């Protein structure tokens, strides 16, 4: 397990939600995944999220998910937290994925709010508890109402925090006021799940990031959080402002599309996307190059 784990930072401070590399014919590229994971940890990540949305989890099979976690743990598991995305909109399926992730060596679980079927808060509570009960691994909730259709309300987060294995929340709610109350009342370790709000969320009590732009600017994210934690808010703000073009550019379209394009520009493993995702157009790639260069990314 990575040495950066504390009760306050159970998964470290800087994690990247890793893409899933595929071969030219669309198969899982396990060698590429291991090389990319090693590159990201070498760059300064405390952990990696595997099989998340940026990892195209809606299009990978249960077996592929297990193979991917196993391969990444083999590559970096003694140096970083390998956190497996296991959330679906089917509690039974999520339990299966949680148990599978534990069997192949994952260090933690990321469990997103059930999407599309829009359960009530009691349904969310029971879902998250059932998944946390299914494996002996620490759990990070993932609150992203823009995708899931429902938020995890503060009262529900407070109730869930009573579970001994639910230790953190990835916040992509985009509401600093609600985040502030939930941080104060739940005591969960809070991770920004919205790169543009990385610094603002630190200011209201977050401990770190689960980032997409970490694929290309992990050293900057590390410097930002280290500066903030040490009390140098001016330096943290300067880094935040430097990264604004990267934050904007990487989300002009779906983040997985731009991330794979950026990795390809740097000669790193990525490969094609699985439908319904599509490759960036030449115009989108040209704009991405401009955005990344404006943020200091070398291509």
TrEMBL record:
InterPro entries: Aldolase_TIM (IPR013785), DapA (IPR005263), DapA-like (IPR002220), Schiff_base-form_aldolases_AS (IPR020625), Schiff_base-form_aldolases_CS (IPR020624)
Main location: cytoplasm
Pfam families: DHDPS
Record-annotated active site: 142 (proton donor/acceptor), 170 (schiff-base intermediate with substrate)
Subcellular location: Cytoplasm
Function comment: Catalyzes the condensation of (S)-aspartate-beta-semialdehyde [(S)-ASA] and pyruvate to 4-hydroxy-tetrahydrodipicolinate (HTPA).
The protein's name: 4-hydroxy-tetrahydrodipicolinate synthase
Originating species: Streptomyces spinosisporus
